[in-house]
What we know:
Layout lengths: L4 H7 L14 H13 L13 H12 L14 H4 L14 H19 L20 H5 L6 E9 L23 E9 L1 H7 L2 E7 L5 H7 L4 E3 L6 E3 H8 L12 H18 L4 E8 L1 H16 L5 E6 L5 E2 H9 L3 E7 L20 H4 L6 E2 L3 E5 L13 H5 L1 H10 L44 E2 L5 E2 L14
Helix pairs in contact: 2-8, 5-15, 9-11
Amino acid sequence: MNRPSMVRAHQQVLIDHPKHRKPSNPASRLSRSLSNLLHLHIETPQRSHLSCTNWDLVCQEKQSMPVMSPKEDISYMWQQLHGSNDWHNLLDPLPPCLRREIVKYGEFAQATYDAFDFDPFSEYCGSCRYNLNKLFEQLGLTKHGYKVCKYIYAMSHVNLPGWLERSHWVDTWSKDSNWMGYVAISDDEETRRIGRRDIAVAWRGTVAPSEWYEDFQRKLEPIGDGDAKVEHGFHTIYTSKSDSTRYNKSSASEQVMKEVTRLVQLYRDNGEEVSLTITGHSLGGALALLNAYEAGKSLPGLPISVISFGAPRVGNIAFRDELQDMGIKTLRVVNKQDIVPRMPGIVFNESLERFDDFTGTLDWVYTHVGSELKVDIQSSPYLKHGLNLAGFHCLETYLHLVDGFHGSCSTFRSDAKRDVALVNKACDMLVDELRIPHCWYQLANKGLVPNAHGRWVKPTRKPEDIPSPCS
């Protein structure tokens, strides 16, 4: 099938094997330049020390293992797991209960990719493939005990080349908007297990690593009334709206805050304790931080946490300080080999803070927020170790590494539960001995189905899965 636009963009930087190499182009030259500038430690691909026989045994063992551990009651410590103490002494080593929560929110973020219609030959390109009442059921996420209650749509007034391919159809579901994420709420059983009613917001990201430098090395612009500033492109996606559009008469910001505010009031009025957990990968991680900032301003006293994966820097030092003053907790999961968390501000970043005594506070310097959980490609025996910027940045790679992480001084967990095959959904990171095809997550027959006359055509969506106007 037509692979998602994210995958096609990623293929521009797949240079870890000679057969993938193409004549030099700006994207590949940029990737190599960034690797040199960032001093990335990349090993030459090597054949695993395990024999094929041992790999067969590994595969058989993994196939007979449940994909997740039994859930446990964490209600007595939910504040600590939600970051009340900035996850102090909880990240290295990483306790199983926190690991499972991080993976849970990561899978919520992954759902924004898995359900997104990237097919430019589809009249619904840019929308979610499924009705919100079926999203988790279609993606196998009902095990987490949440219900989707609102979809979020976004648009942009700035030129962002490559962040989304538009449909080739003349009459499409929308010429302006894209499905950007959703709001979900924990059900009664999950609420009892985790100790509070949790509102989860998941944001989608689409930009390939080689595009960050050109697309988002932009200016910082003010947010709020103080000195806080954030990256212009991120803020534009979050706040853009137009009366002439069908899905963005209100901005993504207004859509998400209206629903979060409604849910907070609903459950607080019922006497329940409520939390807000916002997650996203890549660009989605940046939008998650903007969402948390706005929620902190609008809903004081609400416990708010951000769990992001491979997210870039978003704002300046004053933006970070305001988030901290509002009590917003941020946990950034960062792959050591991924270049996106080092951008924007690849040169001018938080490392310049050490010179504050001489320069004063630099309000134009990008800086990260919160605590960091660092994972490493080199730790997993299942992953190739060559240069693969796309694979380093893929969310499924992140989730695999988190699932296998115990501590910085420990080896990859032998009892890691998550299915290893998921890593190759949209990249080529697994060692060949596992015999898992790369970029395997795709619709059968490239999305074509035979109609009543035996002709192969694009299927029509069920009425409930067709995007409808926002109320």
